[in-house]
Each structure stands twice: as structure tokens, then as C-alpha cells.
Specification:
The protein has 240 residues and is mainly beta. The protein has one helix and 19 strands. The protein has three domains: 8-79; 82-141, Immunoglobulin-like (Sandwich); 143-239, Sandwich (Immunoglobulin-like).
Length: 240
């Protein structure tokens, strides 16, 4: 006995939309009837279920040549639930997956979460759910500006600054120039671009100022654990 239940999921005797427990001898004289009010009224029209809930159906098979047979079936009809899957994709990283469950024809409107340093191709995921659906939201890194300044201890620029643009998360490597009359300790400035413009200042120490720097720091009487005696830092790096 197939049951009409479009848009819903139901169980009858453990099987979706089907009753199969009635056993009878069918020939040209057999009449199949159904009752949904406990046997008060009967109809030969198969019950049509359009609302979720529980329905008890009595099925009767009558034949003048055989004993009348009946069976009672309880049909449980549940609303169909569809799944909306939203996949947030960022290149080089594991996807973030969110799932939502709605009944058919439900409107949905999901705002895309902000991610600092990134843009995305969909501000929100919206629509009306009519089936299981997957939507992909793609994040793209923003571009920011990197400036590396080369200055003396007084803050005066002694070489042109390095400037370039990088995307969030991109690695950079900048060679520090050799400047006549100055000492440097770092040959390369390396790092990974953050989610804002960045300025790195590299301070150079003049060879002529080295005695004064040593006396100012006061490390002449200290010895390092490695027995190196005097250690002088020629270059400092600070982030603005």
C-alpha cells in the first residue's frame, strides 16, 4: 500500500511510505478498503498523508469466497529535514565546515564571519532550502605594504628604504645593505606578513661611534658564558 507523503519522511511498519503486512488471497472478487477512524467508515481510496504526525490505518480485504482479513498499521510521518553545508575555504589551510538543518522551503540567511586580513567572495549565504545543499565561501588574503628603513642611531636615514607589497601570510626576505662606515649584524630581515601595513627600522652603528657606545653600555667588565669577553651589538631591529 504505497502512501502519498511528498515532502516528508515516514515509517510504516519500519519501511518508508509502505505497508506490506497484510496477507490475503487476491483474485478478481477481492476488495481492499481502508479506515482511518477506527473502522467507523471505510474507503477504497489509499490514505494520503500530507501532515507530519501519527496515523492509524486499518486495512480490510474482503472476498465472498474467503474469510475477511484485516490488519492495523500505525504510520509515523516526520518532516523531511535538509542539510545546508557551508564550507569556508582559505588557500593553504584546512577548510572550516558548518552545517545547518532546516525543513523544506525554509529561508536561510547566514552572515559570513569576518577574518582579519582577508576578503571573501560572499558576504552572506542565503536562499530557500529545497534539497541538501553545499555552499563554498572563499577567503582571499588582503595585500599590505612592507617598509624597511635603514637609519643611524640618531634616526637619520642612511640608505633608501625597501618597500614592497605582500599578501597576508606571505613570507618575505630582505637583504640589509652594506653601508660604508657602518657595521651591521643582520644580513637578512625575514618574516611573515601580518594583517596590516608594517614598518621595520634597522639601526646601524657608525664605526667612529663604537668606543662611545661601548662606554655607554658599560659591558667592558662582563664576560659571556662562551668566554667571548666583549660583545657589541651593531644593529638593532624594532617594529613600529
Amino acid at each position: 500500500m504505497p502512501l502519498s507523503a511528498e515532502g516528508y519522511e515516514g515509517l510504516a511498519d519500519g519501511l518508508p511510505h509502505h505497508v506490506h503486512s497484510l496477507k490475503y488471497i487476491k483474485d478478481g472478487n477481492t476488495v481492499i478498503e481502508y479506515s482511518t477512524d477506527g473502522g467507523k467508515t471505510w474507503t477504497d481510496i489509499v490514505p494520503s498523508l500530507t501532515e507530519p504526525g501519527t496515523l492509524t490505518v486499518i486495512v480490510r480485504a474482503s472476498n465472498p469466497n474467503y474469510e475477511t482479513a484485516t490488519t492495523t498499521v500505525q504510520i509515523v510521518l516526520l518532516p523531511t529535514v535538509y542539510t545546508l553545508t557551508v564550507r569556508y575555504v582559505t588557500e593553504g589551510e584546512e577548510d572550516i565546515v558548518k552545517q545547518y538543518h532546516y525543513q523544506p522551503d525554509t529561508a536561510y540567511n547566514i552572515i559570513t564571519p569576518e577574518r582579519h586580513g582577508y576578503t571573501y567572495d560572499l558576504d552572506k549565504v542565503e536562499g530557500i532550502l529545497t534539497e541538501d545543499t553545499e555552499v563554498i565561501v572563499r577567503y582571499s588574503p588582503r595585500t599590505y605594504h612592507l617598509t624597511v628603513r635603514f637609519v643611524d642611531v640618531n634616526g637619520k636615514e642612511i640608505a633608501p628604504s625597501f618597500e614592497s607589497d605582500y599578501k597576508t601570510g606571505a613570507e618575505y626576505s630582505v637583504l640589509t645593505p652594506q653601508i660604508e662606515g657602518y657595521l651591521k649584524a643582520l644580513d637578512i630581515i625575514e618574516g611573515k606578513m601580518g594583517s596590516r601595513d608594517e614598518t621595520i627600522t634597522v639601526i646601524y652603528v657608525s664605526k667612529d661611534d663604537l668606543p662611545d657606545i661601548v662606554n655607554m653600555i658599560g659591558i667592558g667588565d662582563y664576560e659571556t658564558p662562551l668566554g667571548l669577553d666583549h660583545v657589541i651589538m651593531h644593529v638593532g631591529v624594532c617594529f613600529e
